[in-house]
Specification:
- This protein is of the alpha+beta class and 338 residues long.
- It has 3 domains: 66 residues, Uridine Diphospho-n-acetylenolpyruvylglucosamine Reductase, domain 2 (2-Layer Sandwich); 153 residues, 2-Layer Sandwich (Uridine Diphospho-n-acetylenolpyruvylglucosamine Reductase, domain 3), CATH 3.30.465.10; 105 residues, UDP-N-acetylenolpyruvoylglucosamine reductase, C-terminal domain (Uridine Diphospho-n-acetylenolpyruvylglucosamine Reductase, domain 1).
- Helix content is 23%, strand content 26%.
- The strands form 6 sheets. A 5-stranded antiparallel β-sheet has the order 6-7-12-10-11, with no helix packed on it. A 4-stranded mixed β-sheet has the order 1-2-5-3, with helices on one face.
- β6 and β7 form a beta hairpin.
- The chain is globular, with a radius of gyration of 20 Å.
- The site of flavin-adenine dinucleotide has 33 residues, from β3, β8 and β12.
Length: 338
């Protein structure tokens, strides 16, 4: 049922006040198609919502918010090693990770504890601790918002890149993702080389380590630096890690030899936005209702009572400050609803 003047605040991990003119939660393609038709007839803008963990509303939304809540986990194929599984877009991502680990299916254990839903996993090609969705994605099923037609995007058609996809880029706002299929692997090797995973696992003999051990290690590392949205409003990393030319990198590196850097190829280097923001003096910055997390400068927080507009003002000041100090343009990672 479409609800008018709906308060969506508690559907957003940033916990900023926001209303939408209309709201509906849909659990099937049929319900989604009805909602899309209603919006067309009533001339309403559409905004799709999953778990609300990567989105910042600057103000109320003038239109229909459709929360995609399709459920279901179906194994399409299992040859004894590889499992092809298709999941409803509304399933919780972390619960699916735990389900896969329980079944002995490897490939997504490093993506433990990422908030949000399955449907958003290809949106920005979610990634953490050396794994991205592109590594396991098989296809995405989505309904075209204007025509209502269902299309299957093979992984190579999703144009996945670092925190990017066709759905966030070229075809932004055109598709409602309803199901996502992944290929998992019972013999997928454990990936322990990223960050502090190896150190976290040092007490467990190498040969006995399991997907669950890696997942537990990732969870512990994440909990040590990222705020729990149930306690402190946030949307994870607010900015993307910038990728700059090797030529520009060499210039900055000369005066900041301790700067973390991740060469992408011969000509491009990724930098740590958290380090840049930290060095520019923003870590722990406090504006009473909101600020910059004191354990991870890449995370902006709503301590209670901040509006999305106020958080955006802080974000713009941080961008200007990093630009002035390092000459680097930060780009928001969180989706901005202005
Ligand atoms: P939402 O926030 O609801 O939506 C995100 C975007 O996708 C919006 O533009 C929305 O319109 C669109 N969208 C959502 N669902 C659909 C759909 N079914 N069809 C079409 N469009 C849709 N991300 C990482 O990649 N790695 C991390 O390590 C990570 N850590 C995080 C830690 C914390 C504490 C938090 C709060 C966030 C973190 N994130 C991370 C960001 C976030 O969890 C992911 O981007 C997640 O995939 C968002 O899912 P969601 O369902 O909440 O999407
Ligand atoms: N750093 C600082 N100060 C800070 C924060 C970070 O000096 O305040 C330094 C760290 O010491 C480290 C480097 O910056 O040398 C990178 O920090 P970290 O390992 O915490 O990872 P990140 O690059 O900040 C990225 C993702 C996270 C993901 C982690 C782990 C982006 C934008 N962020 O963070 O994703 O969980 O790596 O893979 O790519 C998200 O997208 O919301 C998110 C949390």
């Amino acid at each position: 049922m479409i609800k008018p003047q709906f308060d969506i605040t508690d559907k957003l991990t940033f916990n900023v006040p926001a209303k939408s003119s209309f709201y509906i939660e849909v659990f099937s393609d049929e319900e989604l198609l009805e909602a899309l038709a209603w919006a067309q007839i009533n001339n309403q803008h559409i905004l799709l919502l999953g778990g609300g963990s990567n989105i910042l509303f600057h103000k109320d939304f003038d239109g229909l918010v459709i929360q995609i809540s399709h459920k279901g986990i179906t194994v399409l194929n299992d040859d004894g090693r590889f499992i092809e599984v298709v999941i409803g877009a509304g399933e919780n991502w972390h619960e699916f990770v735990l389900y896969a680990i329980e079944k002995g299916w490897g490939g997504i254990e490093n993506l433990s504890l990422i908030p949000g839903r399955v449907g958003a996993s290809p949106m920005q090609n979610i990634g953490a601790y050396g794994v991205e969705i592109i590594d396991v994605l098989k296809y995405v099923e989505a309904i075209n918002i204007s025509t209502g037609k269902l299309r299957r995007f093979k992984v190579e058609e999703c144009e996945l890149g670092y925190r990017d996809s066709i759905f966030k880029g070229r075809e932004k706002g055109k598709w409602a993702i309803t199901r996502v299929a992944y290929t998992l692997d019972r013999q997928s090797p454990l990936k322990m080389s990223y960050g502090a995973i190896e150190a976290e696992l040092s007490s467990i003999p190498f040969e006995t380590r399991t997907y669950k051990d890696v997942s537990d290690a990732v969870i512990r590392i994440r909990q040590s630096k990222l705020p729990d949205p149930a306690v402190l409003g946030n949307a994870g990393s607010f900015f993307k890690n910038p990728i700059i030319s090797k030529v520009d990198f060499d210039k900055i590196h000369a005066s900041h030899p301790d700067m973390p850097n991740y060469p992408q190829d011969d000509s491009l280097v990724k930098l740590a936005a958290g380090w840049l923001i930290d060095k520019a003096g923003w870590k722990g910055h406090d504006r009473v209702t909101h600020g910059v997390h004191d354990k991870q400068a890449l995370v902006l927080i709503n301590k209670g009572g901040a509006t999305g507009g106020e958080i955006w003002i802080l974000a713009k000041e941080i961008m200007a400050s990093v630009k002035e100090k390092f000459g680097i343009e930060l780009e928001p990672e969180v989706n901005q609803i202005r």
